[in-house]
Amino acid sequence: MTPHPGPESMRRLAAGSRRIRVRRRILPVLAAAAVAVLPVTRTVPSERAPAEPRLVFPTAAARESFLEALAEYRAEGRYLDLRPAALSDPAAFARWVDELRSQAREDTPRPPSRVPTTVLWWVAGDTYLGRLAIRHRLNAGLRQIGGHIGYDVRPSARGQGHGTAMLQAALPFAARLGIDPALVTCDRANVASRRVIEAAGGRYAGAAGRELHFEVPTRRR
Ligand SMILES: CC(C)(COP(=O)(O)OP(=O)(O)OC[C@H]1O[C@@H](n2cnc3c(N)ncnc32)[C@H](O)[C@@H]1OP(=O)(O)O)[C@@H](O)C(=O)NCCC(=O)NCCS
Question: What is the reported pTM?
Fold first, then answer.
């Protein structure tokens, strides 16, 4: 049998039910306050969060970051044909960006060994991370080395998944150019590049000397 509650128990029960009533009144107020505050607390971190990397056509907005990347590339012996001093001039940089973009056009004058090429930059906001070159068709040289798609990631951004994400993001561009599958090649010692190609669905398709050939489907199947 449950004992009848004494005065002390009654006082505790009454105090308990008052606390519950007070909580019932306060909780909706707190919840409303949280709803009012949450949008503020949600926007602040997202404004500060780094932008998601994406592919863009070469853009003068990335000039400063590109020049930093260029210094990194040059330290490992790449892009020695580009002149950082000249490109640090905003007008010269903008002209060079236009030239890069114009490479995609069939009627742009180019040496006979070159084919029309779409250049894409992998950027997070205005931060340059890497680049790809999609060659619209193959010639004898590209059939041996280079293939349809060449790429690199700036040295300070390597090993973070950008190469993998960047090549996969480029495949719809290649598909729209009528390329399927894309021939992508890498030196047999270039383990990182091979992994990037295989992650994009690349199937081994033979070798030319040290260069391994892969066929990468560009359309989702
Ligand atoms: C090849 C390159 C684009 C890879 O870019 P990245 O952003 O470093 O690649 P990821 O971070 O996506 O790594 C891809 C894979 O390679 C591996 N990897 C990265 N760097 C590596 C290294 N130095 N040695 C061995 N494996 C490496 C990663 O662990 C990852 O493997 P996983 O898929 O099993 O995890 C980059 O190293 C580069 O620009 N190299 C110089 C230019 C070049 O070689 N271009 C390709 C010409 S074919």
Answer: 0.82
